Amino acid sequence: MTQIDSELLTTPETRLDDGDHERFTHIVLEGYTPKNQEFVPLGNSVVEGMINQTPVTALCGKVWVPGRDPKKYPICPTCREIAESMGWSLPND
Q: Which of 40, 43, 46, 44 is nearest to 70 (CA)?
C-alpha cells in the first residue's frame, strides 16, 4: 500500500447527515410567557436535562439528553433559521 493510500484510509471523510447534529448547539424552547400571564412550560429545561439525564427537544426537532458544552459548537443551521424567522436575535458563531 502506498503512503497516499494509507492517508486516504486514515483521513475521516466529512459528511453531513443525521449524525452531524451532535456537532451543533441546538436551541431549546423551554416555554413562554403570554402577555400579562404566568410562564407556560413546554418541556424539560436544558439544565433539568443535564442534571436528571432527561431528553430535551430542539427547535429543529432533535431530541437528546444534553451533556456537552454548547459554547464549543456552532448553532444548528435549522434551529437558527427557525429562530430568525420568528424575529429572534442570535449570537454570531
A: 46
37-85 pLDDT, tens digit each:
888 888 888 888 999 999 999 999 999 999 888 888 999 999 999 999 9
What residues contact 29, with CB distance under 8 A and at least 6 apart? 42, 43, 59
Separation of CA 58 from chain center: 6
pLDDT in tens, 10-45: 444 434 344 555 689 999 988 888 888 888 888 888
DSSP assignments along 1-65, one per residue: --HHHHHHHHSPPP--SGGGGGGSBPP---EE--TTS--EE-S--HHHHHHHT--EE-TTS-EE-
